[in-house]
Amino acid sequence: MSESDRSTDRIGVYSDSSILKKVVLHRPGEELLFNPDKSDDFLFDGPPIIPKILEEYDEFVRLIEVFGSEIFFFEDMLIHVLDNNKDLREQLLEDLVKDEWMKLDGKESDFLINKINTKDFVGFIISGYYPASRKGPKMDPTTNLMFTRDPMAVVGNNLLWTWHRPKRNRRKESFLVDLVIRYHPAFSDLKDIGSSTMNDPSIMIEGGDIMVANENLLMIGFCRNQRQTRTTYNGIKHLAKHIIPDGFSILLVEFTRHHTKNTIHMDTIGTFASDDYFFADRRIFEQPTGTQSGVGLFLIDKDNLGELIEPSSKENDWPPGRISDRNFFEVIEPFGLKPEPIYTDDCEGKFGGLIPMREQWMLAMNNFALGPNKVIAYEYSIFTLKVAKEEGFTILPSTEIKERQDFYNHRKLIVTIPATELLRTRGGPHCLSMPLERE
Questions:
Q1: Rg of the chain's alpha carbons, rounded to an integer?
Q2: How many domains does the structure of the chain reveal?
Q3: CB-based contacts of 256: which residues, under 8 Å, 6+ apart?
């Protein structure tokens, strides 16, 4: 990457912890009124108490606003697109009927296309509740849309997204993301490398598996046994073909043992607070690969890109670039990254290792950096926050943050938010946010 390419005027994301300038969020609504029997379909632990979860979510949003980042709410973006492209409303309905999301008679179609405003139409599409009666859902809700991190991601100047065909409850999400990306001006300065995957169901990329370490290194999580909720082989190949020529190397992080619901994506077991600190699950990151760490590491660059894309070996020997003698932190050091790990205090093993397991389950690693060492975390990560405090972080409840300067009164700061109901969704602050641009 040339020095001119490294200018501070670049549009996109070149670090997961540099100052957040623009972000895509979705404030959930009636789509959370789902059948409790379908909780597992959405990977929720159960239906949340809606007034409480909205109170918690709004506090998360408030912190981002106080920090000064520009927020694009997904629902508003979709309204903007449909208001400015009148034919898309009818096309979207036709696509959803064709994909067997619902059945409409002529009267219902006319009502939805011609008789209601765009906001009500979008509310119906997302929630599934017919706007005229509210007597019951007309189609399944788009419950996972609140996790804007997952359906798309920005890597450098590249915008990536894919269709989630294998997982039915995610397909409607893909229709909506497609419209917003193609027609909303917020994405116009990014290079779309997702639209070309629309007709290939084998290409799937989950934004929660994508982590931009810095301008030299992209990390991608994957698991051979979880292809309906994880980034697929062909998704990795597609991304590598576009990203490596831009100057990135790719570190593939394979989950070989820890691949349950609580480790659904890369960002559930590790996130950056800055170049200097990394929240990490000790069970996975501390030991060299090839031991009992439950993780495989593979380094892909321009020298072995060809073998990644056109492998000559068997699937079990793929991907190339396996690393067997170093742990995660030793592997990323040559890329200019020497973060101190922030593990969970295991209380000297007093509880048989259950404390780190419990905190990881409660999303202690899924934290969101608004800027270097300016982090939002859930308040229940007690033993992880204890270690962060020992590393010099100030821990404050969100109620103490009133203006932007409050973030900068402390060199290293973690702001905690209540998350009793957010925890039911199995998504933390990192999952709830899709950075569109960072400094």
A1: 21
A2: 1
A3: 223, 224, 294, 295, 296
User: Which residues on neighbouring strands pair with residue 299, listed in sequence order?
Assistant: 251
Q: 8 CB contacts (<8 Å, ≥6 apart)? A: 439
Lookup result for tokens 């059948």? 35
Residue 138 domain flag: no
State both tokens at 47: 């239906």
Would the pLDDT of 227 be above 50?
A: yes
Which amino acid, residue 9? Answer: D
Whether the pLDDT of residue 134 is over 60: the answer is no
Model pTM?
0.91
Q: β-strands 413-417, 374-378: how paired?
A: parallel
Burial of 317 (0-12, 13-18, 19+ CB in 10 A): exposed
* Contact present, 329 and 339 (Cβ < 8 Å): yes
Kindly state whether residue 374 falls inside one of the protein's structural domains: yes
The pLDDT tens digits for 281-307 are 887 787 666 545 567 899 999 999 998
| pLDDT tens column, 334-352 | 999 999 999 988 776 677 6
CATH number of the domain to which 433 belongs: 3.75.10.10
Domain span including residue 40: 4-76+143-438
